[in-house]
Amino acid sequence: METTIKETEQIVDTIKRFGTGIAIILFPVFFIISNAIHPDLFDISMIHDVQSWIEHFHGNNLLHFAHILELFMAPLLIVTALHFMGRLKKKGVYFG
To answer: Other C-beta atoms within 10 Å of 20: how many?
Structure first.
């Protein structure tokens, strides 16, 4: 069964809409979770020596997991930004 160009474009548009929707939903969830599990988030003391930084980072799996979640948020922001760029191209004069 052969698909036409129009059907292929419809499939691609559906995937784009679905992916954008998932990105818009998952980004705030990942953002809240990564900041909520970040250890010592409200500790405002400054660390100046190298040994303290090493003690802070080594073996702190929760901190590493929070930063991995933040790493996974970058592609979600890219997808969302591309979506809104496309939307603004169609209505650029209206939105300035």
So the answer is: 18
Contacts for 15-21: CB closer than 8 Å, 24+ residues apart:
16/83, 19/79, 20/79, 20/80, 20/83
Which domain covers residue 94, as residue numbers?
1-40+76-96
Query: pTM of the predicted model, to two decimals?
Result: 0.69
Angle CA 87–11–74, to nearest 5 = 50
* HSE value, Cβ hemisphere, 13 Å, CA-based, for 7: 4
Q: Which two tokens stand for residue 28?
A: 């705030």
Q: Hey, what are 29's tokens?
A: 């969830």
Please tell me the total count of domains within the chain. 1
Task: Walk along the chain (96 residues) and give the pLDDT tens digit of each residue.
Answer: 577 889 999 999 999 899 999 999 999 999 999 888 877 778 778 888 898 888 888 888 988 898 898 898 999 899 888 888 888 776 666 655
